[in-house]
Structure formats: structure tokens, C-alpha cells
Amino acid sequence: MNKLFHTSEKSRIALFAFLLLLYTNAIAQSNLIPNHSFEYIDSVSLRVVSIPDAIPWTAPPVNSSDIFSENSLDTFNRPPFIGNYNHLNIIYQYPHSGKSMAGIITLMGYNGNNYREYLQAPLIDSLKSGKCYIVYFYTNNWFCYQLAINNIALSFSDTILPSNHNITSINSMIPLPSHIMKQGNPVITDTMNWTPIAGIYIAHGGEKYAEIGNFHPDSLTDTINMCNQSQWASNYFIDDVFVIEANAYAGKDTSIAKGDSVYLGIEQVPGVQNNWYVGSSLIKQNTGGIWVQPQQTTTYILQSTICNTTYYDTVTVIVSNVGINQLTNNNRLLEVYPNPANTNLTISPLANLKMIEVYDVVGRKLEDLRMSRLGNEIQIQVSDLSSGIYFLKATDEKGFQHTAKFVKE
Question: Domains in the chain: how many in total?
Fold first, then answer.
């Protein structure tokens, strides 16, 4: 449930918790992006190869961007396995959520003519002048045999950009402003995990469309040759696009077994100040989402300050009496080698993994570790880690969690 309070006194947090619990109907976050995860596909044959099948998305200028769906009859467009290159699996990725995701070319390495593909969606409602909006989406580098780039961004426009299947000229760069980019605009190299790109946008009013892609020319785009192959193309998956009027969002009420953990909230958005409370006790600062493992049913309070306005939201985690040891297929160990590791750590998963996180011994999540996947083998580059003990936490496609401990020499 979301509720705006014009107050900032910490001493009143406990009162807010009591008042918020009096409400019984949750107010859902209103995402202005229709078909935000590309799940609704209009395709009789399910040989989905074009973004217009995910109504109402288009792909200026020539509708050449792709949709990848687990329901596709075309093996090249059916994740998690997509295509091959010299008889090697080159893409092994699940959508960030659901069964579908989009794919775009963000730079053509051998071409040098600013070749681009884009995504475009009409907003459900025009943006309001002076209003703050939370914007985020997820991207993933396709596979090892290509270029990784920076400049992946979302832009807002007042008018639609035309998309025409009949245009035969080469796709060219669209010079829109990059309103939302990953903080610091790094080259995105992760081929295993989905990378969130998030930020705050203050509307001038009347924006009606959102576009995603690389809006910079080749000459102003940084690249990394991922596997020392001949330069080919830069391809990225896109999934779960959100444009939400500023508010706090702690997540949906959920139930877990005793001893299990659950993730609350959303990705941290640059420019948003977040504090998490249980009652009047501050438990976490400066993070949009947290992992919790309550031993009894607990209500968490999220305080978010966005554009100088403070919002509150609550989420309740209901804990059942089933012990963790009674759950099947949960918290299984991963096999990792070599252990101790020096340069690279390889994971032999017991299941198809969708997300892998690495933590140090004090529980800090490590960011920007390079991970790659070829078939079922997952490799993490650990050469830059300090010597010590680290923990892996992985989630498979069924939501089960797997853990491992390794030593960096």
C-alpha cells in the first residue's frame, strides 16, 4: 500500500506503521509502459521475430528489432537456448521475468555506419509537467562473441518516431537525448545477470513515448571486445521496462517458510534516498531493495525521499511454521571449481540458474563482477577480488535458491 505523508520525523515512524496497517486495499504501482515485459504477443504462428508482435511496441525506423519468447516455434527465437556460432551455444539466457524479452542491435562493429535498432512504446498517460518519475529497465549482453558497449539508455519524446517495414535503407542512429542511463555510463559486459538501468526523470510535460537504445554515434560509444574475436555486433536483451510516478514501493505481501529469505522492494534508483524500518527501528539505509529472513511474520516500512518529497510504503512477510529442512529442492549447494580460485571460478549448476550474486564475509554484495555463460557452464572472473572467503547465492528458474562458499587466493 502506498501513502504519501508530509513529514520526516523519525519518532513518528512507529505511528505510521500502525496507521498504514489499518488500510486493507493495496494501491498498485501504476506503470506507464504497456506490455512492459513483452508477454502479450500477437502471432498466429508463434514464429516471433519482430517487435511489433508485442503490441503496442514498435522499433523505429524499420521494425527490425526482435522478440524472444519461450513459446516461439523458431529455435533461434526461443530462450534459453538461441542459435549457434561455430557449433557453440552462443546465447543461454532466460527473460528477466515471464517468458519473453526483446533484443536490439546497439552497434555494428564491422560496419561503422552508426547502425542501430531501437524499441518504442506509447505511454499509457502523458507525463505531467514538473512531476518526478522513477524509470528503470533491465538489459543483458547477449553472448561472448561480440562487442560490449556503454550508452544504453531510455529517452522520452513528445511525438512518435515512424516505423516502417517497407523502408529498405540501413537502420541509422536516432539522435535523441539519453534521459536514463546507468550511473557512470559504464560498458555493460555481464552476459549472465540482468543489469538494471535506473534513474529519476523530471518531466517537462506532454511526453507521450519512451524509446530504448544507443542514441550516440559510434565515435562516442565505448566498446570492449568480449572474447578477443573479430569485431561483429553489439546486441542486448531488454526486459521489464517501468515508468512510475514518484512513490515508495516496498513490494507485495508474501509468504515464506521459516528459515527462508525473500527480496523486498526494487532496484536502487540513483537520486532516491531509501530507509527501511521495522517499527521505529532503522534496519537498512540507501538501498531500494533488501533481502530479509524473518523468523516470524513481520511488517517492513520503506521510506523513500524523491525530489524533496517523502513517501512511505509497507510490506508484510508472513512466516509459516514449516522448517527450512522440510522444504525440498531449496538451498541446495552449488559445485564450484577450482576452490580456492585465483583467476576464474566455474559453477556447475544443479539447475538452470537465472541470477547469481556474490557476497563478502560481512554480507556486502559485490557489483560489476564479469560473468559469462556458455551452455550450462558459468564462469565468474575473480582476479580483482581480494584474498579471502566469499559466498555465492544463486536463484534458478523455479525460484529455488542455491549457495556455495569459495576462497579467493
Answer: 3
Residue 188 domain boundaries: 51-245
Whether this prediction's pTM lies above 0.70 is answered by: yes
Residues 6+ apart with CB under 8 A from 153: 178, 179, 180, 181, 197, 212, 213, 214, 215
**Residue 3 belongs to some domain of the structure:** no
Identify whether the C-beta of residue 141 lies closer than 8 Å to the C-beta of residue 128: no
User: How many Cβ atoms sit within 10 Å of the Cβ of residue 136?
Assistant: 21
Question: What does the alpha-carbon distance between residue 282 and residue 323 come to, in Å, rounded to a whole number?
Answer: 28
d(CA 249, CA 288) in angstroms, rounded, equals 8
- Spans in the chain with pLDDT lower than 70: 1-29, 43-49, 81-91, 109-112, 143-145, 164-170, 227-231, 321-333, 349-351, 361-363, 374-376
Last residue in a domain, options 298, 324, 350: 324
Match 547502425 to its residue by C-alpha cell.
Answer: 115
CA–CA dist 198, 12 (Å, integer): 30
